[in-house]
Amino acid sequence: MSGRPFIVACIPAFNEERTIARVVIEAQRYVDRVVVCDDGSTDLTGVIAERLGAVVVRHERNMGYGAALRSLFLKAREMGADVMVTLDADGQHDPSYIPKLVEPILKGEADIVIGSRFLCGGRGVPGYRKWGIKVITGLARRASYRELTDAQSGFRAYGRRALEAITPVECGMGVSTEILLKARDNGLRIKELPIEVNYDVENPSTRNPLYHGLSVVLSTVKYWSMRHPLIFYGMPGLATLVVAMVFWVWTFKIFAATRQVITNITLVAIGATMVGLMLLTTAVILWVLVSVVKETKSKNYDMH
Q: How many domains does the chain fold into?
């Protein structure tokens, strides 16, 4: 990376007027510019951030964490950032870790650096949250990077390659996993570094943990199914057709012996056949679409 790198801190915020000033001021010590996405706040979050010199991107209504991250990715790219660091507005993330997260990117060792709460033992992480994060991280590891320890950390640094390759589309909390899956698809290098998070803050996150977990799981399943449609839809489709075949044979055997059609058995055979064919058709269509998209992206990359 030639010359002095342009580093931007990006903060998604929703009704964080009590903490946003401290987070912005502390982050300004370590970066060239601070950008805040005011995600439809009904308080003075955006006004305070702007008065303190931050660039403020405003959403007219609350659109969700993922939508805020999308706006921040686009803004950082527009500003020509060499490195973008994301951190929460509630004060849980300590901005003094920013130089540590940025360093591997500046040295060319990684494209994305994640601040992991579990490389230092997960100290201070509430028990229910720790269990949920580990479950979600286990799912994310299967679909992306096997060495991950904290797939849900929002304290991350993104290099220019990551900024150019990734545009989040998830509006909810599933965006954290979406980014990892897209990073894997684009061959980006990821590194984790230990951080500690302060959960004893004045205005802690009000995200429903059940909704958060469900959102992430569904997002992971969705992206995994799109990446491997022949496995995700095709294998269950074949298994269902095998079940259908068993019931068809049973139906014909009974008919041959008694000249009667057993309605329940026949309906199961018909239903299983329809479901199996639908799953196989879905698998083939998605596989073709994914192949076309990959080929198009490859051609566009070669042209550039």
A: 2
